[in-house]
C-alpha cells in the first residue's frame, strides 16, 4: 500500500489533518468592517454575529475572481481566511476601496497564526473528544472557541472534504503542540497529494486552478456564496445578468479519465475545442479523475469528451460533482 493509499484510507474511515498554514489570514478591525466587506463581496456578511461565518468572493468590476474567502465574525474583529499565498493581493485590493468615512483596518496575521484543517467522517467526534467543544451541530463556516493543548483555539465548520471538515485556528506558537495532541488522539497527518485527491473528489475549486482571473463565481458552481438580493457590490451587475439570463460561457465539471492525463490539457468534442482541464489526480477509489471547465452544452453528466495534451489523447466522461463512490 502506498503512502497516499494509507492516508486516503484514513481520511475515508476516520479523521485526518493537514497543516494549512499557507492559507492566508487577514484581521479586520474598525466599526464598519462588516459593512465594508458586505459592499465589496458577493455574499451577505453585514449581519454576521460573533460565532458566525460565511464564504464570500471578491471579484473585479467585470466579475472575475480575485479570491474566495471565509469570513469569521468575532466580537472585536473579523478574521478572514484567503487562498494559499493570496492574502497580499486580497489586502491590497480591499485597501484601494477604503474611503475617508470607513472605519476599517486590515492586518496580515498569517505569520502570527496557525491553521490546521481536519477532515474525514470522524472529524467532529474526535475534535469534540479532545477539546470538549460541541462542534457537530455547527452550521457551515460558523465557529466556537475551545481549549486544546492548553491554548485557545477557534474551531470552525469547514467545507466538507473526505466526509467532514473543521478549521482549527490558533496562534502560531501553539500549532505544534496542537498537532501533537491531535496525533495522540488518532488523527493521521496527510500530505498535499492526498489532500488534492480528496479536494477533487469533493468537487471543491482551488485558487490558481479552478478559481482566478479567468473565471466567474457562477461558472465555478459557487452559487450558494452569491447573494442575488443584497444589492450592489463590485462585479454585481455582470453576475446578476448571468443569473437572470442563465447564460454561462462555461461551467465547472467533474471528469473521469480512461488513463493518466498530464496538464496542460484541453477538452474536445467532434474536433472542436470545448474546454480545459484544471486539476488531475489519481484516486485510490475512482482512478484518474479531474476537474475542468466545459461549455454548458457539453457539460451534462454522462457525456463523453476527449482530453488532449502535448503528447496524448485520453477519453473522459463528464461527471456530476461531488464525485460518486466507485
Radius of gyration, Cα only, in angstroms? 20 Å
Mean pLDDT: 95
Main sheet strand line-up? 8-9-10-7-1-11
H-E string: HEEHEEEHEEHEEEHEHHEEEEEE
Assembly of the depicted chains: single chain
Beta fraction? 35-45%
What characteristic shape results from the CA principal axes?
Answer: globular
State the end-to-end CA separation.
19 Å
Main sheet overview: 6 strands, mixed
Q: Please work out how many helical segments DSSP would assign.
A: 7
Unreliable stretches (pLDDT < 50, length at least 5) are: none
DSSP strand tally? 17
Structural class call reads: alpha+beta
* Helicity range: 10-25%
Q: Could you give a quick summary of the protein structure above?
A:
By secondary structure, the protein is of the alpha+beta class.
Q: Can you tell me about this structure?
A:
With 326 residues, the protein is an alpha+beta fold. It contains seven helices and 17 strands. The strands form three sheets. Strands 8-9-10-7-1-11 form a six-stranded mixed beta sheet. A six-stranded antiparallel barrel has the order 12-15-14-13-16-17. Helix 1 packs across helix 6. The radius of gyration is 20 Å and the shape is globular. The mean pLDDT is 95.
Break the fold down into its secondary structure elements and pairings.
Blueprint: H1 3-13, E1 16-19, E2 23-29, H2 33-40, E3 53-59, E4 65-73, E5 78-84, H3 87-95, E6 105-108, E7 113-119, H4 123-131, E8 143-148, E9 151-161, E10 164-171, H5 175-184, E11 188-189, H6 192-202, H7 236-245, E12 251-257, E13 265-269, E14 272-283, E15 287-294, E16 304-308, E17 313-319
Parallel strand pairs: 1-11
Antiparallel strand pairs: 1-7, 2-5, 2-6, 3-4, 4-5, 7-10, 8-9, 9-10, 12-15, 12-17, 13-14, 13-16, 14-15, 16-17
Amino acid at each position: 500500500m502506498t503512502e497516499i493509499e494509507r492516508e486516503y484510507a484514513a481520511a475515508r474511515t476516520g479523521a485526518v489533518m493537514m497543516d494549512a498554514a499557507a492559507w492566508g489570514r487577514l484581521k479586520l478591525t474598525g466599526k464598519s468592517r462588516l459593512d465594508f466587506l458586505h459592499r465589496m463581496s458577493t455574499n451577505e456578511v453585514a449581519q454576521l454575529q460573533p460565532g458566525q461565518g460565511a464564504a464570500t468572493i471578491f471579484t473585479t468590476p467585470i466579475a472575475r475572481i480575485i479570491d474566495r474567502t471565509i469570513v469569521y465574525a468575532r466580537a472585536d474583529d473579523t478574521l478572514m481566511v484567503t487562498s494559499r499565498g493570496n492574502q497580499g493581493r486580497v489586502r491590497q485590493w480591499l485597501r484601494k476601496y477604503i474611503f475617508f468615512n470607513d472605519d476599517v483596518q486590515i492586518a496580515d496575521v498569517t505569520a502570527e497564526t496557525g491553521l490546521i484543517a481536519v477532515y474525514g467522517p470522524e472529524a467532529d467526534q474526535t475534535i469534540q473528544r479532545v477539546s470538549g467543544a460541541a462542534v457537530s451541530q455547527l452550521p457551515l463556516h460558523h465557529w466556537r472557541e475551545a481549549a486544546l493543548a492548553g491554548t485557545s483555539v477557534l474551531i470552525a465548520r469547514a467545507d466538507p472534504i473526505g466526509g467532514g471538515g473543521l478549521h482549527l485556528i490558533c496562534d502560531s506558537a501553539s500549532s505544534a503542540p496542537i498537532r501533537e495532541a491531535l496525533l495522540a488522539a488518532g488523527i493521521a497527518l496527510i500530505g498535499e497529494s492526498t489532500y488534492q485527491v480528496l479536494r477533487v473528489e469533493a468537487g471543491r475549486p482551488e485558487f490558481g486552478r479552478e478559481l482566478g482571473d479567468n473565471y466567474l463565481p457562477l461558472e465555478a458552481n459557487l452559487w450558494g456564496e452569491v447573494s442575488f438580493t443584497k444589492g450592489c457590490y463590485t462585479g454585481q451587475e455582470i453576475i446578476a445578468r448571468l443569473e437572470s439570463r442563465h447564460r454561462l460561457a462555461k461551467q465547472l465539471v467533474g471528469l473521469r479519465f480512461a488513463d493518466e492525463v498530464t496538464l496542460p490539457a484541453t477538452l474536445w468534442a467532434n474536433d472542436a475545442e470545448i474546454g480545459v482541464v484544471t486539476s488531475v489526480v489519481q484516486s485510490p477509489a475512482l482512478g484518474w479523475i479531474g476537474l475542468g471547465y466545459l461549455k454548458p452544452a457539453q457539460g451534462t453528466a454522462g457525456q463523453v469528451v476527449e482530453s488532449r495534451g502535448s503528447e496524448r489523447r485520453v477519453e473522459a466522461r463528464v461527471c456530476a460533482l461531488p464525485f460518486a463512490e466507485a
